[in-house]
Every structure is written in C-alpha cells, then in structure tokens.
Request: fold
Amino acid sequence: MTITLRNLLASLLILGVVACSSVGKNHPAVTTTSDFTIVPAINMQTPRSGHTATLIRDGRVLIAGGMERNGTYFNSVELYSPATGSFNFAHSMSARRVGHTATLLQNGKVLIAGGFDGSGSLDSAEVYDPATDSFTPTGNMNSRRGDFTATLLRSGKVLVVGGEASSALASAEVYDPGTGKFSRTGDMTSGRTMHTATLLPSGKVLITGGGDYQKPLATAELYDPATGSFSATGSMAIARYKHAAELLPDGNALILGGSDGRDWRGQYVSAEIYDTAKHTFRLAGNMSVARFKITEAVARLKTGEILIAGGGERCEVYDNRTGSFKLVNGQMDTARFYSTATLLADGQVLIAGGYDTHGVASSKAWVFKT
Reply:
C-alpha cells in the first residue's frame, strides 16, 4: 500500500483548485467493452482511504486500517463476505495504520506491517489469523516505514522495500514467518517511496519509480533473493510515483499512470511495459484518463486482462493480446484515490473506499462483474 501521510495531508489543501483540470480528461481513442460492468455493493462500516484489502483463503476480504480526511486514523478491521455481499467488523489491530502493507502468507495468515499512525512512521508488525479472528504482534522491522512495498517471495518470506521515515529509504529487509523476525538484506541503489514492487516469473522482484518526496525517479531495479542484492535494470520513459504495476500473462510487467511529482497537476495517462527478457521498458499506449494514487486499485483478472479501478469515475481494462485499453460499462459516483481493488475467488473484483477530489474518504464499495 503506498500513501505518504505528509504528502496526503498537504495535497488535500489544494484538491479543490486543481482537481477539475487534472481528473477525468477523456481520450476518445479508448473504446468501451460490453464484457464487463461495475455495480454498487453494500457500503463498508467505515469510510476509509489508504487502507489495505487482502483476499484470504476462505474467500473473504480483510479490510484493514486507513484514514479519514479529518485525520482520524484507524486500527479497525472489516471482513467482506462475497456470500452475503456485506462488510462486518473484525477484531482490531494493535495500532492505527495508514500507508501500511498487508501480505497473505503461505500459511493463510496475513502480515500487517508499518505505516503511519498520525505521529510518524511505524516499525511494528502483527499477524492476523482468520481462524481465530485475532491479531498477534510479531517482530518489529529494523526501520520505521510508511509508503513502502511488501512482496511475498517464492520461499514464503516477505521482502520489505524502501518507504519513508524522515526521507525516502534505500534499505530493505526480509520477514521470515518461521521465526517471526525481520532481517536486513541488501540496499537499493536509490532511496524510494511510493514505488511499485512486482514478483516476476524468475522469482526476482521488479522495483519501479518512486523516489523522495515530489522527486520521482524513472529508474528501476531488480531484487534477487538468491543473492539478497539489488541491481539496476533499465529506465522507464518517464519518472513516476504513486503509479501501479501488474504482472501480465506473458511474464512482462505493466506500469500504469502515476505523477511527475506535481501530484494533481502532473498525473499521467501513459503506460509502459517492462520486458523481462530484454530488461527494457517500452511505451504501451494511453489509458482513458490520467490516473495516480492507484497502486492498490489494479487487479489482474482471471482472463489475463488488467483492471484499473482507481483515479477516475470509470474503470477500464488493458488487454495484453491487443495492447489496448477499454472502458468498462457503468461507473462509480466519482473518481477515487487510494482505493483498493481485490480479485475475488469467483473472478469478480471488490472495489472499496478511497477519497474523492475534495479529500473526503468514502465507505462506498462496488463490484466489478465479468
């Protein structure tokens, strides 16, 4: 989950001035597909943005933490049941968290780590057990982090990368579920926050963009679990942060949207593809609207297409077979930022929360249907 508390609070002050010029600019070349539609769902119990949403093994979705516009930070947790289409409160976390991460472990439990609690970044972590609906503290990270990434490796361990404390961090660490401890691993070549991390078929992890506050990078690097080290791997066409990345069926990675560091004034409509064989990036066409703050609002469908569900009123899908974007039937009430999109067991997608162009968090949810 990537959301910088400092950046979020500052940007809320200027949303009303710039949002109309930066959000919802349509590009007619994008067509509409009748294969998919989006419909309203029952609301969450609490308005949230910057929360996490994790599909657990029994098919429910764990919604954890987040915040409201007024600076209310949550330790509360909800569970969405596809069987009933409803949200119900679960046991709360031990700490209030926004900009944290949630990772489904191989044992079916969920690792919640870091984030911001309103007074600064956190190093604490806890594990949620769906069988008992309870959180248990686990070892602390070696560094306080918010706006970082956490990636489940093939070994079952979790790679934690970058993020922000007082500045962007280059450090990384690995969580071992067997010991419940975090251990340091090699550093990145650059400090990064608001970046993306994508597990590739090779087992390596692709890190793209991010950077320090309002200073995004175009560079990318690969983490090799075998050596515990990072190495540079090409550069994107443009510097991006607050963007999204998703693995494509062919093993390449799709990089979507983001901003040039000016936030609302600098949103991108463009996309790029990382070629895992050539270690290079190439442009991949434009979305229907410029979108940013969408890191958790992207999901790969069972068809292999990529759903982009944040940053605009309309959802769209990217078809790797044709290399094109298509709008989805139906729309949300407004563009939403720092929302979540979670692929459900039946192939539908739960879209939840986020804040609007006035910075107001929502409890509304939608279901993307195939």
User: Anything to note?
Assistant: The CA atoms of residues 318 and 325 lie 4 Å apart.
